[in-house]
Design goal:
Layout (H helix, E strand, L loop, with lengths): L11 H8 L11 E4 L1 H7 L13 E4 L6 E5 L5 E3 L17 E3 L4 E2 H11 L4 H8 L7 H4 L7 H14 L1
Antiparallel strand pairs: 1-2, 2-3, 3-4, 5-6
Bound molecules: zinc ion (ZN).
The site of zinc ion has 8 residues, from loops.
């Protein structure tokens, strides 16, 4: 006979305990893992020394002021401690689609509406996006901006 002390098997009862681990210390939303090199590169100069440990995550909640937080040591950096606006946070201005070449979402949409671009490649030719890519350091999530540009193109296409 199997004795089940955990009441149910779906995990809902133990979820409360595990939930906070790894989540944003302020809003408790789930964060995405980000490399230390990205955090170091994007915090303002006077905050660089405070970047300790390497278990960093980025808070994806657009309402939350926290950008990076460390899961291990509690270090966190807010929007005003980061050099660039975070495109998915509320009131980001300008809203960059490509951080390496400083191309904004607006420019991508304009390339779609005024120049008829439909693909990321076409947008790149028109706007100069994704030239000299160094996404690991420049993009706040440390990932290639390809996806963000594609989303901006979709927005533009939907406006047509
Ligand atoms: Zn948060």
């Amino acid at each position: 006979m199997i004795k089940n002390n955990n009441a149910c098997s779906c995990g809902c009862c133990s979820q409360d305990l595990v939930q906070t681990k790894g989540n944003c210390p302020v809003c408790n939303n789930k964060g995405e893992a980000v490399g230390k090199v990205t955090v170091e590169h994007l915090v303002t100069d006077d905050n660089r020394k405070a970047v300790e440990g390497d278990q960093y995550r980025i808070c994806l909640n657009e309402e939350c002021d926290v950008v990076y937080y460390n899961v291990d040591n509690g270090v966190k950096f807010l929007k005003n401690q980061i050099k660039v606006p975070i495109w998915f946070k509320k009131d980001a201005n300008p809203k960059y689609a490509c951080y390496c070449s400083k191309v904004t979402e607006e420019q991508v949409i304009e390339a779609v509406l005024k120049h008829g671009a439909k693909t990321v490649q076409e947008v790149n030719v028109i706007t100069g996006a994704m030239k000299n890519s160094n996404c690991k350091e420049n993009n706040p999530m440390g990932v290639c901006c390809h996806k963000i540009i594609q989303e901006a193109i979709n927005k533009g296409l939907a406006m047509k």
